[in-house]
Amino acid sequence: MGNVVEQLAEITGYKDRDVMDVTMVVAMRDMLSPLSVSIYRAVGAGDDQRWMTRARLAADDAVATADPLSTPLTELPPLAQFPARMACLQKHELRESAAGSEFTCHFPLLSEHDGDGVLEIVTRTRLSPAEQRTVSAIVKVYHNFQGLLDYSERDTLTGLLNRKTFDGSFLKLLGGGGALATAVAAGDRRHEPSASYWLGVIDIDHFKRVNDNFGHLIGDEVLLLLSRLMRACFRYHDRLYRFGGEEFVVLLRADNVADAAAAFERLRVQCRNYAFPQVGQVTLSIGFTAIRMGDTPAGAFDRADKAVYHAKHHGRDQVHGFEQLVTDGHLQEEGDKESDVELF
Ligand SMILES: Nc1nc2c(ncn2[C@@H]2O[C@H](COP(=O)(O)OP(=O)(O)OP(=O)(O)O)[C@@H](O)[C@H]2O)c(=O)[nH]1
């Protein structure tokens, strides 16, 4: 085995989860020289959970591979297709299996927010008890470090990502935004109807009244329950943020404006139909915009926020897309006007 302390330093040297997973498989390969080492996570909800490959390295691979975050759920293998991984996930314990001349060890990777997963190590000779103990200890450090990352990146009340992490995710998304580049190459730089990523701003209507009438604790419960509705409503590859107060943000992947609008509309309807304990009905004003090539986080947020503002001034409990409001003449593009005054 290589130097365990060095491997630990390597794994905990990054604050990016994607990089951490890759570093973990590289460290395991350097330590154990296995046939392959992989990290898989269970994504999706309820009965339709699937395996997403977060990082995989075979003996001859120069670099680790992973499923792109945007992979449609239906293209990923169902959990039941890999019973040994599933048993490890369900029992939360190390599982060993053998097939022909190969031995496989599955170590559970538990995560409160990112979906539980497994570390799979396939070797030609069985891992010794000492090797298993070392890997388990490294997994523990990895887990503790992920907990620290959660603490700094997540909102304590709802567990959603906090505002601090938004800019980084946004810029990362633009960096890998092949679909955005295609949209720009195709022509219209500003409206990009075929953009694949959308930013939605979600604001609870009359939330002050909830606090005033029922107290802050009940107000907090509404925020928590709304975050659960959001988790159930959006897909595993969408990123959900609480920006503070009663304002939430979603970075959504959708193929077209109709799909994006439908996703936000689904949340609006589910929220208005949900019976919040004591409070009863709560409604949302939602604005969204296509993320464009060369966008800044503040620029995209500002457009979606203007659509929220429009919803607030036209009866609340509604969803508006910024681009449609521009087309309909209710708002103007930033470059088209002298001031920020809304046209209504
Ligand atoms: N319970 C609770 N309340 C919060 C929190 N953060 C902000 N608030 C409250 O959220 C309320 C937001 O009120 P406003 O910005 O006036 O908006 P609103 O009452 O929702 O009205 P509209 O947005 O115009 O529909 C304020 O009363 C804040 O005190 C929090 O973490 N918990």
Describe the SSE topology.
Layout (H helix, E strand, L loop, with lengths): L3 H8 L5 H16 L3 E8 L6 E9 L24 H9 L3 E5 L2 E8 L7 E7 L5 H25 L7 E2 L3 H10 L2 H8 L11 E8 L2 H8 L1 H18 L5 E6 L2 E7 L3 H17 L10 E7 L6 H16 L5 E4 H6 L17
Parallel strand pairs: 6-8, 10-11
Antiparallel strand pairs: 1-2, 1-5, 3-4, 4-5, 7-9, 7-10, 8-9
The structure holds guanosine-5'-triphosphate.
Guanosine-5'-triphosphate binds next to strand 7, helix 7 and helix 8.
InterPro entries: Diguanylate_Cyclase, GGDEF_dom, Nucleotide_cyclase, Rev_trsase/Diguanyl_cyclase
EC number: 2.7.7.65
Protein name: diguanylate cyclase
Task: Provide a compact summary of the structure.
This protein is α+β, with helices and mostly antiparallel strands and about 350 residues long. The protein is built from eleven helices and eleven strands. It has helices spanning about 5-10, 15-30, 85-90, 130-155, 165-175, 180-185, 205-215, 215-235, 255-275, 295-310, 320-325; strands spanning about 35-45, 50-60, 95-100, 100-110, 115-125, 160, 195-205, 240-245, 245-255, 285-290, 320.
How many helices in DSSP terms? 11
Query: What would CATH call the class of the largest domain?
Result: Alpha Beta
Order of secondary-structure elements: HHEEHEEEHEHHEHHEEHEHEH
Report low-confidence residues grouped into runs of 5 or more.
Answer: 177-195, 338-344
In total, the number of domains comes to: 2
**Strand order of the main beta sheet, please?**
6-8-9-7-10-11
Structural class: alpha+beta
For CATH, the homologous superfamily of the largest domain is named as Reverse transcriptase/Diguanylate cyclase domain
Q: What is the CATH architecture descriptor of the largest domain? A: 2-Layer Sandwich
Global outline: elongated
Distance between the termini: 69 Å
Structure summary, number of beta strands: 11
Average pLDDT over all residues: 87
Helical amount = 40-55%
**Ligand inventory:** guanosine-5'-triphosphate
Return Rg in Å.
23 Å
Subunit organisation of the chains = single chain
